[in-house]
Design brief:
By secondary structure, the chain is α+β, with helices and mostly antiparallel strands. It has two domains: about 100 residues, no CATH class; about 80 residues, no CATH class. Strand 5 and strand 6 form a beta hairpin.
């Protein structure tokens, strides 16, 4: 991948999935965030790494342990049905993990809780990923691309396809932060 093709996106290229996870762990430890958030945190994490098991381990490593603020934590064996339905199964000692999908299910009454539909109803705005950034539009909703399409763009030799995929994921990150802000989630959970 030619990093020059993505000059407007701060990025780092790694060779393997293990290198990617190591880089992410290092980034989390360097930034030291109090809150880690995402849309469907546990489901997204499991679909992006092929060797994940139910305990968020890859190649014998517990990602939650590696990014925790404390060492030597005991693995949680909480498998009661309430915890499975109401909390994130991805736990990190010393950090709050917010599964925004679960939070939005309590904040909004919708018939469909996809990121795209929730953005449309919560933010009352429609977005499209165009050119080099997220732009506010009046007629286009947030596009939903299949994982196979995003994978195809990532594996494409055409730099514009990879850039489109990265802009799409960057746009989702921005939307997650805007939803957290719009619902005042941090103040409510403090």
């Amino acid at each position: 991948m030619d990093i020059r093709a993505l000059r407007d996106i701060p990025s780092q290229v790694v060779d393997t999935e293990l290198d990617l996870l190591s880089t992410i762990v290092d980034l989390v430890l360097d930034l030291d965030p109090d809150v880690i958030s995402g849309w469907e945190v546990q489901n997204s994490a499991k679909t992006t790494t092929s060797d994940y098991d139910a305990d968020q381990k890859i190649v014998g490593l517990d990602i939650g342990e590696l990014i925790s603020r404390t060492s030597g934590r005991e693995p949680s064996n909480t498998t009661d049905q309430w915890s499975i339905r109401h909390t994130s199964t991805f736990r990190v000692a010393g950090r709050h993990v917010l599964n925004l999908w679960r939070i939005m299910r309590t904040e909004l009454e919708l018939s469909l809780y996809t990121l795209e539909n929730t953005v449309y109803h919560l933010l009352r705005r429609r977005y499209a990923i165009l050119a080099s950034r997220v732009r506010l539009l009046t007629l286009i909703r947030v596009p939903k691309y299949a994982h196979s399409t995003l994978t195809e763009w990532h594996n494409s030799p055409v730099p514009a396809h990879r850039a489109r995929m990265l802009h799409h994921l960057l746009g989702h990150t921005v939307l997650v932060l805007e939803m957290i802000d719009a619902t005042d989630t941090i103040a409510k959970t403090a």
